[in-house]
Amino acid sequence: MSAEQIHDIGKRRAWVIWLVALAVYILAVFHRSSLGVAGIIASDRFDISATSLATFTVLQLVVYAGMQVPVGVLLDRYASRAMLLCGLVLLTAGQLAFAFADSFPAAVAARAAVGAGDAMVFISVIRLVSIWFLVRQAPMVTQVTGMSGQLGAIAAAGPLSFLLHELGWTRAFALTSSLGVVLIVAVAALVKDSPYRSEEVVAIKLRALAQSVRTVWGNPGTRLGMWSHFTSQFAFTVFALLWGYPFLVQGLGWSPGAASTLLMAMTAWTVVSGLITARLVSRLPFYRSWIVVGIVIGMVVPWTAVLLWPGVAPAWLVVVMCFLTASGGPAAMVAFDLARSFTPPHQTGRANGLVNVGGFTASLLTMALIGVVLDLVEPGGMDAYTLGDFKLAMSVQYLFWAFGIVQTLRYRRRGLAHLARLHPGSIEQMRSGQPFVHPGIGVEGV
């Protein structure tokens, strides 16, 4: 028997809940991205090498990626409101600790707390979208969520850079941490988990956890979403969170102001490219994974031109490269829409958690490898790196692009065969331009 519905779906209350949850996601992206413009300052503050600088963000993303599956399980058990509150507490505490950290180990521990809080936010917001909005609304709201989250990256690239120079390290980070307190109150007061009186959630016992995750992982649609996320998301994350600013300033010789402006313009471009991507995905559901692959190829081409250009590439080419790289953010959102077609509603938390692992795993590996390559070719530290050093280090991205495209196309084939076998007519429905949403019956693992 279905639970009693007590609130309208897709109406005013749904939008209020989404806006509050979205504000949490924007703040999470802000905290996640805050080291992007503070990297050079952090290098001086803690007297660390490129590999050690990368450790900040890599550990943050290791914690983020490693927590996705347990967070997905907890999300299916306790729902979004509790996870958002826990995430906000960790984000606020981590950023406040980072403000007062005066040693490298203390700063690393603080970034780990930020990563743990960040891990709880996005998939909690996506779960609210899937529950509170109509099927025809959800894909667009999901894309807008991903695009709007980049406002946090814009704030990190511009206003935070200003605050760091005006207020200094401690006061700037302490001030930004206080925003979490305001949002804790807003989430507690306004967010509701479901429009139904008593939502059925999956009570997972510890002994059943491994089997439940294996079932979701066995679904080729989950893996298709994960590899799509892996391939499309990491280049933008690596550039915006850590290595883009040093590459522009130290490598290409841009001024700090111009570099910050370009990072803000990149995140603004995600809004435009996200709207285009969302429209394509809604009109061509059968070709969603090909849309992702096409966007990735689109970013590889200008990267190749910039890296092979003799000397400093012209500014217009760098801007094109950055904008197409930023298009990977909206492309990564398609991965969650792919997983939704394959996953029963009671498994969406775990499926989205596994999907989210993809891009952040690629990001942390790429960040770490770039730092290792820079230290190998030039042990002298940040001030000693040349454009040639950065070009060589940035080339490690091709390993992940190539592997990700192969895996995406591989699981596209497997996923379509899976849908055709378990849900006859679903392929024809998507070919005709109609979305296929899982009917919510049966077990989808293979």
Automatic annotation (TrEMBL):
The main location class comes to: membrane
Keywords of this protein's UniProt record, alphabetized? Cell membrane, Membrane, Transmembrane, Transmembrane helix
What is its subcellular localisation? Cell membrane
- Give the organism, scientific name: Nocardioides hwasunensis
Q: Which residues cross the membrane?
A: 15-41, 53-75, 82-101, 113-135, 147-165, 171-191, 224-245, 257-278, 290-309, 315-339, 351-372, 392-411
Tell me the classification of the organism that encodes this protein: Bacteria, Bacillati, Actinomycetota, Actinomycetes, Propionibacteriales
InterPro entries assigned to the protein according to its UniProt record, in alphabetical order: MFS, MFS_dom, MFS_Efflux_Transporters, MFS_trans_sf
Protein name as catalogued:
MFS transporter
| CDD domains in the record | MFS
Q: Which residues form the Major facilitator superfamily (MFS) profile domain?
A: 17-412
- What topology in the membrane does the UniProt record assign? Multi-pass membrane protein
Q: Does the keyword Metal-binding apply?
A: no
Q: Which domain of life is it from?
A: Bacteria
